Amino acid sequence: MNFSAHIIAEELKIFESRFKDSVKSNVPLLDRIMKYVVKTKGKQLRPMFVLLSARMAGGINESTYRAASLVELLHTATLVHDDVVDESMERRGVFSVYALWKAKVSILVGDYLLAKGLLLSLDNDDFHILQILSRAVKEMSEGELLQLEKSRSLNLDEAIYFRIITHKTASLLASACAAGAYSACKDPVVTEKMRLFGEKVGIAFQIKDDLFDYGKEDVGKPTGNDIKEKKLTLPLIYTLNNVDRKLRKELIYIIKNQNKDKDKIDYVISQVEASGGIGYATEKMNTYRNNALEILNEFPADEVRETLINLVNFTTDRKK
Predict the structure, then answer these.
(1) What average pLDDT does this structure show over 98-117?
(2) Is the pLDDT of residue 155 over 90?
(3) Which of 37, 6, 254, 85 is nearest to 154 (CA)?
(4) What is the DSSP letter of 89?
(5) Most exposed of 142, 193, 205, 285 (fewest Cβ within 10 Å)?
């Protein structure tokens, strides 16, 4: 990663150890899968946001580590379930749980992770933190279902797009920041401020993901995966709402009926670029990033704030 999180390096090690303990099981198959899940988990951005938000709001304590573990348990559960829904064989460049153990086991593993998260909070009376994170899981499910519904009809409304990504992607990051802040200070004003900060970062993060589909900013060749899956992304929505009727009709026809034809996908990508869709999405992403940074500037200048600023910039500058 091209940002420094050294100020929470020790805390991250403690979190990793706690997270490993939190997923242990006496069922050999489950324990084997949990070891695989721990070994292959990603960048840990969300636990970092929990820990740094807590540092910003007053200091990391035992409740903070539980909040970070809960965030990771819930996030991992949703990813395991997502891979079943999408029939995805890969996750972060390695085999998914679904690829190795199939649908039945994957669904049960996701359920197990959700239950472990609930118990981790309930057994320690972290009721408000559990409430914050449960709201995120509810919103993520709503966002996914809304996206499925709208992709069928290709209802290309920018307001709906932002509703989808606020629920589907930003809600978990928003809740991670809120839970971290609450664990440190129990102050509803600071907690809400950090929730809003996380939401802005989460929206910028998702728009960056949208842009990867078009291969801009030296990320390699465009993939067109979102187009193949009929996903409503911001560059595409802008394009379809800003080209003439004839071209709009043609592009919609390709997305609905020829979305496996590489040449046709390349044509859609070229039209998105020509219409200014990529520039528009980049501008929106930067606006949300700047809104997040403005919230941070309300806190005292110190190395915690500096690290969070670097982390925000990483989400929009990352290459994958």
Answers:
(1) 96
(2) no
(3) 254
(4) S
(5) 142
- Domain of residue 271: give its range: 213-275
User: What's the alpha-carbon Rg for the chain, to the nearest Å?
Assistant: 20
Looking at residue 4, what is its pLDDT? 59
Q: Structurally, how many domains does the chain consist of? A: 2
The vertex-319 CA angle with 209 and 313, nearest 5°, equals 80
The answer to whether residues 66 and 129 touch, using CB atoms and an 8 Å cutoff, is yes
Mind listing the pLDDT tens digit for each residue in 236-275?
Answer: 999 999 999 999 999 999 988 898 888 999 999 999 999 9
Same domain, 254 and 288: no
Q: Domain with 300 in it: what CATH number?
A: 1.10.600.10
Give the number of C-alpha atoms closer than 13 A to the C-alpha of residue 291, restricted to the C-beta side.
18
Give the residues across from 94 on adjacent strands.
91
For the chain, give the mean pLDDT.
91
Shared domain check, 230 and 131? no
Please state the separation of Cα 112 from the chain's center in Å. 21
Same domain, 286 and 262: no
Residue 74: both structure tokens together? 């819930």
Strand spans (E) along 78-187: 90-91, 94-95
Same domain, 22 and 147: yes
Give a yes or no: residue 229 inside a domain. yes
CB burial of residue 11 (10 Å; 0-12, 13-18, 19+): buried
